[in-house]
Every structure is written in structure tokens, then in C-alpha cells.
Design goal:
single chain, alpha/beta, Rossmann fold, 2 domains, six-stranded parallel β-sheet, 14 helices, about 15% strand, binds uridine-5'-diphosphate-glucuronic acid
Length: about 425
């Protein structure tokens, strides 16, 4: 098949490369010429394991990037993968996606064969009939050969390529059997190698499935953090408790790691967006509001643990880990941000270290010290806060001996309790 993918951000680049790898002819369309050139050179504009290899193999062959929408009418299906950032009130900003939807419609105005436009971006259910479908149809001069569908993406940063290739499920939100069939054709080569259930539904339900999926996972972590905070107050180990409840297969052992909370480009944005969308129809989603509240609380609890041993004012405090999770340089909504803010507001001198994310964080906090290694950050420190569970932190040992006061507050349970340090686990 010939597939056009509009938008070459995180999701767009990954799916374009993976569709090409499945044997499709792919045209990636982006307004940013630099991104287009990078893709045509066979390189990824983002850091993601396996993506460069796929692009090197397929760029210039099955994958071409361009700034023009000319290829859209000649393709069999178009995926819209444009970002939907947060507005201040938590709702999503659809403006870039709406413009791309209209431009896609415009490119299809004279197409006589049926054409499927699939929304990949995460959008709230009401925005499909209220904003996106009208944008596509008005761009296309109401050409009724165009049909709109929704195919949400469930990939994780750091394992995006393998998550695409081995999904737990595929969700096809369409308005006709023809469109469902077309999506089956797109994913057929994947399903030949990996047996995943396909959920067939309408576009709005498909979009709600994406929000429900992320809201459930974020709430699971917040619930575990809430229970974990209670464990800490009772001097109990939340991990021992969670290991036990994870044996109940209705609960499952995954996503039970308590600590400083969730961040990234998805959970915070998506939970806030579905809360805002619910409030817009006068529903108050009490559990989801609690999910956000508990998450906001965790960085402060780290500070409280620290302050039970050290006064942060004028103290040197090491912050280990800046990325929102290990194996990425992405700092979006990283818990390190509220942790550093809280330290600075208490007058601490922050010495931060991350194996890859320091550059990114230096734009946000230009005035703190960025150490070259965890050992350098710990040297002479009065306390250390572990915010990201990078593997290398679990190897730290005698580096703690160089601290002035060896208080270690672990927000991710990656440091072993050992002699010679004052160790505080956040929920254990
Ligand atoms: C998340 C979802 O896991 C994906 O399924 C989804 O497709 C994606 O959002 C998206 O909507 O695009 P991602 O943000 O890449 O993926 O990261 P996760 O690996 O899910 O981690 C999210 C956050 O939760 C991280 O800050 C992580 O440290 C934290 N976390 C995760 C915990 O605190 N405890 C856990 O047990 C698991």
C-alpha cells in the first residue's frame, strides 16, 4: 500500500519507519524542512532505539519525506500524527492538528476514489465530530469520498519500535466496513508475525480507549503511591505489599512501582485533557483529579524525607536523574522539575546529574550545577535525591562516602540500603 503520514514527531516518525518496514511505500509529510532532510538522510529526528536502523534501511527507498501534501491523493490511506499539546486549563490545543487536517482535506478535494484519513494523534472523543471531521471535510470541499477514522497508538518512549511491532492490541475506530478492511490491509503484514487482538469500533470510542488506557495506568501508579505513602507512615515497605497484591491476576504485577510519580509527554497531558473534557460536559471526575493530586504530592514528600535529616538552605543537594524515565533524554513533565523547584525555593544549591538529559534540563534550569557523573554530584553533598531509575545508580556504592552528610532519599527504589548512608525510601 502507499501510506502518507502527516507529522514527523515521536509517533509519526515511528509509524512511518515501521510501516515502511512492513513493506508499505510511505511518504512522511512535515512542515519542518530540517526534519524532512534528516529523515531523507536516513536519520531519526528523535532518539529511539532501533529507529535509526529502520530509517537507514528504508529512507530513499520505501520511505520518502517531503514538505508537500502532493502525495496525499495518490496514497491509499493518510495518518494524521500531529501533536496535541496542553492548554493552560489542561484541555488539548488542536490548532496544529486542525490545520493539518484541513490541508489534508484540501489535498483530497478532487479525489474520486474513496480515501481514509486516520487520526493517530491523541484527541478527546468530542473533538472528532466537532473539530477534526469538519476541518477535513471543509478542506476537501465536502468531497464525500473521504472517510475519517481513528487508530490510537499505545507505544512507549524507549521501546516505541518494538511496541509498534508487538502490540498488545490494535484499535480500529471506523465508520464503515470498507474503512475497517483498509486498516486490516495496513496492519496485515504485522499481524502475520505477531498475533494481537483487533478491537473494531467507532472513532470516538477508539479515542476514549486511548484516554482510558493512559488514565487507568496513571491512576494505578497514583493509587500505589497513595497506598505507599500510608505504608511509609506506618514504617512498612510498600514494595513488599505490592509484590503480594500483584499476585492477584485481576491486579497484575505491572505498574506497581511506587515513588516520586509519573511524568512524560503522555500521562500528565492525557489525564488533564480527559479531566478538562469531562468538566466541559459538567462531569467532575473525582478519581482522576485525585490521580493528579497524589502525583503532584510526591516530589514534596521527597523533600520532607530529606528535611527530616538535613536543612536544605545553603546545602549542596545532589539530584540524580533528570529524564522522566530511564533510557530517554526526554524531560517533559519529569518529576525532577518540581523536585529542583522545591529545592531552589528552600535555598539549596543543586548539583544535578543525568547520563543524557542534562543538556535538555539546562534550558529549564540554567543556574544549577550539572555534574559530569553521579560521583561528582555526590562529592561534598549534604543530601542526594534519586529521581530517575537509571541502571547506573544501582551500582553506586563508595561514591556515597564522598558526601558531606550521606543522606540518600530514593524516589525510585534503585539504591541498596547500605552501611554508612542514611537511607530513606519514599514509600518504604
Ligand atoms: C505511556 C504509556 O505507557 C504508553 O502505553 C502510551 O502509548 C504512552 O504513554 C503515550 O500515550 O504515548 P510513556 O509515557 O512512554 O508511555 O512512559 P511509561 O513507561 O508508561 O512511564 C510513564 C511514567 O510512569 C514514568 O515517569 C515512569 O517512571 C512512571 N512509572 C511507571 C511509575 O512511576 N511506576 C510504574 O510502576 C511505572
Amino acid at each position: 500500500m502507499h501510506i502518507t503520514v502527516i507529522g514527523s514527531g515521536y509517533v509519526g516518525t515511528t509509524i512511518a519507519a515501521c510501516f515502511a518496514d512492513l513493506g508499505h511505500e510511505v511518504t512522511a509529510i512535515d512542515i519542518d524542512e530540517e526534519i524532512v532532510n534528516t529523515l531523507n538522510d536516513g536519520r531519526a529526528p528523535i532518539t529511539e532505539p532501533g529507529l535509526d536502523d529502520l530509517l537507514e534501511t528504508h529512507a530513499g527507498d520505501r520511505l520518502t519525506a517531503t514538505t508537500s501534501y502532493d502525495a496525499v491523493p495518490d496514497s491509499d490511506v493518510t495518518f494524521l500524527a500531529i501533536g496535541t499539546p496542553s492548554n493552560n486549563d489542561g484541555s488539548i490545543d488542536l490548532s496544529a492538528l486542525e490545520a493539518a487536517a484541513e490541508a489534508t482535506g484540501d489535498a483530497l478535494a478532487n479525489k474520486t476514489d474513496r480515501h481514509l484519513v486516520v487520526i493517530k494523534s491523541t484527541v478527546t472523543p468530542p473533538s472528532i465530530p466537532a473539530t477534526l471531521e469538519p476541518a477535513i471535510h471543509s478542506g476537501a470541499n465536502e468531497n464525500d469520498a473521504i472517510e475519517v477514522g481513528m487508530n490510537p497508538e499505545f507505544l512507549r518512549e524507549g521501546s516505541a519500535v518494538t511496541d509498534f511491532q508487538q502490540p498488545d492490541k490494535l484499535v480500529f475506530g471506523t465508520q464503515s466496513e470498507w474503512a475497517t478492511e483498509r486498516l486490516h490491509n495496513v496492519f496485515e503484514p504485522l499481524l502475520e508475525h505477531h498475533d494481537a487482538p483487533v478491537v473494531e469500533t467507532d472513532p470516538e470510542t477508539a479515542s476514549m480507549i486511548k484516554y482510558a488506557n493512559n488514565a487507568f495506568l496513571a491512576s494505578k501508579i497514583s493509587l500505589v503511591n497513595d497506598l505507599g505513602n500510608i505504608c511509609k507512615e506506618f514504617d512498612l515497605d510498600a514494595y513488599e505489599v505490592m509484590d503480594a497484591i500483584g499476585l492477584d491476576d485481576r491486579i497484575s504485577e505491572r505498574f506497581l512501582r511506587s515513588g516520586v510519580g509519573w511524568g512524560g509527554s503522555c500521562f500528565p497531558k492525557d489525564v488533564n485533557a480527559i479531566i478538562a473534557a469531562a468538566q466541559a460536559v459538567d462531569y467532575d471526575p473525582a478519581v482522576l483529579e485525585g490521580t493528579v493530586e497524589v502525583n503532584d504530592r510526591q516530589p514534596n514528600r521527597m523533600l520532607e524525607c530529606l528535611m527530616s535529616h538535613v536543612n536544605p538552605e545553603d546545602a549542596r543537594i545532589a539530584v540524580l536523574g533528570l529524564a522522566f524515565k530511564p533510557n530517554t533524554d526526554d524531560i517533559r513533565n519529569s518529576r525532577a522539575i518540581p523536585v529542583i523547584d522545591a529545592l531552589q525555593s528552600r535555598g539549596a544549591n543543586v548539583a544535578a546529574y543525568d547520563p543524557v538529559a542534562a543538556d535538555e534540563m539546562s534550558h529549564k534550569f540554567p543556574d544549577i550545577e550539572y555534574a559530569e557523573s553521579a560521583a561528582d554530584a555526590l562529592e561534598g553533598a549534604d543530601g542526594a535525591l534519586v529521581v530517575t531509575d537509571w541502571d547506573e545508580f544501582s551500582e553506586l556504592d563508595e561514591e556515597f562516602d564522598a558526601m558531606a552528610t550521606p543522606v540518600v532519599v530514593d524516589g525510585r527504589r534503585c539504591i541498596e540500603r547500605r552501611n554508612g548512608i542514611i537511607y530513606e525510601g519514599l514509600t518504604w
